[in-house]
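User: Please run a holo structure prediction.
Assistant: Happy to. Please share the sequence and the ligand.
User: Here you go; the ligand is 3-phosphoglyceric acid.
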Amino acid sequence: MTPEESSRAAERICDLAVIVPVITVDELSHAQPLARALVKGGLKALEVTLRTPVALDAIREMATVEGGVVGAGTLLTPKDVHDAVEAGAKFGVSPGATDRLLDAALEAGLPMLPGAATPSEVMRLLEKGYRVQKFFPAEAAGGVPMLKSMGGPLPQVGFCPTGGIGPDNASRYLTLPNVLCAGGSWVAPKHLMAKGDWAAITALAKAAASIER
Ligand code: 3PG
């Protein structure tokens, strides 16, 4: 896979829904009902962070849910890439980017949303051919004004901002021309998962999926 192909695939992931849930699964038994609840609410691209011992098995389980496209987040190393692909992840997300990580993903054919937070980081990825990138940590790195400013000299890069985004500020990001979709954990909150309140999660997903671009 080339970086250009990776970016085209990342663009298609962003086209599935305006919000990509950033999911941390503590209990494997939550994986399938959670994925079903989010997909039912209209959120089809699901990012499972590799931050818990059950994350890879959660990807395996969620990948069986019809209508969902499951990816792996918090990819830091080539091993993470291989594990994610082996578990059935269809895309990868990373908080930043290293050459080793990017090369491993290209070799494995895993489309990436590689992270960048500054113009130089964005330019470095663009030079390699990645014109779809994750902007992380979105709020802490300057939020909407930062992305608006980057759209001046770097309009060819489309972003998925993530980090500190919620129902109150998501639409401000999504109306920017250089924002393709946004990521956030608010649609899969731990307290609702612990209670097994999947209907409430579907309601959060529905609200998120209908945020105007
Ligand atoms: C993360 O890496 O945890 C994501 O960026 C999600 O951030 P959020 O919890 O602020 O939505």
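The chain has one domain: 3-209.
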